[in-house]
Design a protein that fits this description.
The chain is built from 12 helices and 13 strands. By secondary structure, the chain is of the alpha/beta class. The protein has a 7-stranded parallel β-sheet with strand order 3-2-1-4-5-6-7, sandwiched between helices. The protein has a 6-stranded parallel β-sheet with strand order 10-9-8-11-12-13, with helices on both faces.
Length: 368
Amino acid sequence: MKILLLGLTKIKYMPYARFYLEQLCVPGNEVHLAFWNRDLQPEQKPAQQVILHEFSRSQNDEEHPVKKIGSFREYRRFACRLLDSGNFDLVVILHSLTGAVVFDRLKKYAGRYILDYRDVTYESFLPYRRLIASMVNLSALTLVSSDAFRTLLPQSDKILTSHNISPEEYTARPVRMETVHTPVRIGFWGYIRNPKVNLKIMEHLGNDPRFELHYYGSKQKTAMQLKTYCIYNKLKNVFFHGEYSPEERSGFASKTDIVHNMYDNDAVMSRAVSNKYYDALIFRLPQLCTHGSYMGRLVDEKGIGISVDPEDSLFADRVFAYYNCLNAERFDAACDKELDRVLGEYHACTEAIHALCISLNASLSEDK
């Protein structure tokens, strides 16, 4: 089969693409991966054998949407040319916004594409929400990265829950974290955004000798804003370590006591499940989530972290008390139980993709 994975950003910012590559890069398949190189820096190629299609145009992710229109038009031309000329047997749409940009071309791939839905964008705009519903209905499969997203989509047996995790990562799970100590090292990694919630956390924890706050991620607009705040307020316990490669993650995770997994409680992040949710499970680290969010509810219910309101005046005391009262045995058991649940849903998705490929291959054979 000839397969296209169509993405809207750099490869390294699409870790979820790896899940599809692992399932689809098998003998007999010709797999293509299209991506948008937004910072014009060299891109790290996937480990699998794929044919790459690069769209290169500078684009700051934090710019106002209106200023992005020109570059999105150019990306649409690039993607449409690929879809029109490629004669693909299966297309994987990485992110619903990607599908919205090329929806008119997707119609000819009805029943032959997988929609990967992992973020809320413009669903509050009714025509856009209807467009997403049409995308789901025309898809062969729709994989959501959070069950909370299902409330935005039509009810369908085609929808399964995916998870940004690979079973291979379990093979080298670390031993339970060391005995509790002070300062408690709280670590954030990934794309640094949500200045409002991060400024509140710094307000609560800044220069509190019980804590250190570490950020690992590229220093774009929000990161520089936060760093300026730290300099102005002379915060000595907040550290910015800059961009990192995926291989470095386990290194700084080993120096982390609590994973900072807090975001603004907006339409997107109140429903999302971040990559750090799974990282925390793998590295057996408790995670700090925003109270009232879907992840906040998960960590409280499953005993794998704590949800806290960033406006709570007792924020620091609650986090410190939680950390010092952790029961290692119960915490490990809770992580293992949640990992079992995640793995079960992960394998259900792989089986559905394999069944789809078998069905499409059979149809291709009949057509010959």
